[in-house]
UniProtKB/TrEMBL annotation:
Pathway: Amino-sugar metabolism; N-acetylneuraminate degradation; D-fructose 6-phosphate from N-acetylneuraminate: step 3/5. The lineage of its organism: Bacteria, Bacillati, Bacillota, Bacilli, Bacillales. GO terms for cellular component: cytosol. PANTHER family: N-ACETYLMANNOSAMINE-6-PHOSPHATE 2-EPIMERASE-RELATED. It catalyses: an N-acyl-D-glucosamine 6-phosphate = an N-acyl-D-mannosamine 6-phosphate. Keywords: Carbohydrate metabolism, Isomerase. This is Putative N-acetylmannosamine-6-phosphate 2-epimerase. The keyword DNA-binding does not apply. InterPro entries: Aldolase_TIM (IPR013785), NanE (IPR007260), RibuloseP-bd_barrel (IPR011060). It comes from Paenibacillus roseopurpureus. Belongs to the NanE family. The gene is nanE. It is an enzyme of class 5 (isomerase).
Length: 238
C-alpha cells in the first residue's frame, strides 16, 4: 500500500486544503469542494486538517489524503498531530497518510517523537514528518518515518527565516536521505513549485496560494498599496 501511495504521489502536486475556525471557508463541505477542484486540476493528493475534513474529502474524491490535526496544548509549542489522540482520530477518519510535527521540540503530555512514530507504525499508517532543518530530516529518517516535508522551515526559531521556499533544505535533504522529501512552505508561484522538483523534491505541497483566498487577496492589496495611483482622473458624481 505504501509503495503504491508514493508511486502515485511522485512528481506531482499535493494541494493543502485547510481553513482554520476563524476563516470564512472553514468547514468540511467547503474543503471537500476545494479538494474536488484540485482533483479536477490534476493534483495527485490532498493535505487536510481535521478528522471531519479528511472524512469528507475521502468520501468525495479519489485522491489520497494526508491528514493532520492542529490542536494546541499548554505544555508544548507543537500543534500538528502532537499526540496519539490525534493519530487515532485521523485513522478513524480514513487518512491515507498522517502528517506529524517532526521537529526536535518537546511534545505535549509526555509524548515523544520516537514513541509516536512507533505507535503509528503499529497501527499500520504511513508517517509524514514535518521538519524544519536538515538535522531533523535525518533523524526522522533514522526513527522510521516514510517521508519528510519541509513544512516547518521558518516556523521554528532555529530554522531558516526567509520569505521564499527553503529550496536549499529541499536540495540538501533529497541528496542525503533515502526516503522521499516533500517540498512545502511559502510556495506562491508555479515556477517555485517546478524549482523545488528540479532541486530534488519527490513531490510538492501548495496550500495558501491555492486554497486560502483571504491570503491571496491580501498579497494583492499589500502590493497595490505600495503604488501611488496616477492623478488626473475626474471622479464621477452620482
Amino acid at each position: 500500500m505504501t509503495q503504491d501511495l508514493f508511486s502515485h504521489l511522485f512528481g506531482g502536486l499535493i494541494v493543502s486544503c485547510q481553513a482554520l475556525e476563524d476563516e470564512p471557508l472553514h468547514g468540511a463541505d467547503t474543503m471537500m469542494k476545494m479538494a474536488q477542484a484540485a482533483e479536477l486540476a490534476g493534483a495527485v493528493g490532498i493535505r487536510a486538517n481535521g478528522a471531519a475534513d479528511v472524512k469528507a474529502i475521502r468520501a468525495h474524491t479519489h485522491l489520497p489524503v494526508i491528514g493532520l490535526i492542529k490542536r494546541e496544548y499548554a505544555d508544548s509549542e507543537i500543534y500538528i498531530t502532537a499526540t496519539r489522540r490525534e493519530v487515532d482520530e485521523l485513522i478513524e477518519a480514513g487518512a491515507t497518510m498522517i502528517a506529524i510535527d517532526g521537529t526536535c521540540r518537546p511534545r505535549p503530555q509526555g509524548e515523544t517523537l520516537e514513541g509516536l512514530v512507533s505507535y503509528m507504525k503499529l497501527r499500520g499508517v504511513p508517517v509524514m514528518a514535518d521538519i524544519s532543518t536538515f538535522e531533523e530530516a535525518k533523524y526522522a529518517e533514522e526513527i522510521g518515518v516514510d517521508c519528510v516535508s519541509t513544512t516547518m522551515s521558518g516556523y521554528t526559531s532555529y530554522s531558516s527565516q526567509q520569505e521564499d521556499p527553503d529550496i536549499k533544505l529541499v536540495k540538501e535533504a533529497s541528496e542525503a536521505l533515502r526516503i522521499p522529501v516533500i517540498a512545502e512552505g511559502r510556495i506562491w508561484h508555479p515556477d517555485q513549485a517546478a524549482g523545488a522538483l528540479k532541486a530534488g523534491a519527490f513531490a510538492v505541497v501548495v496550500g495558501s496560494a491555492i486554497t486560502r483566498p483571504q491570503l491571496i487577496a491580501e498579497r494583492y492589496v499589500q502590493a497595490i498599496r505600495k503604488v501611488e495611483p496616477k492623478h488626473g482622473y475626474e471622479i464621477p458624481h452620482s
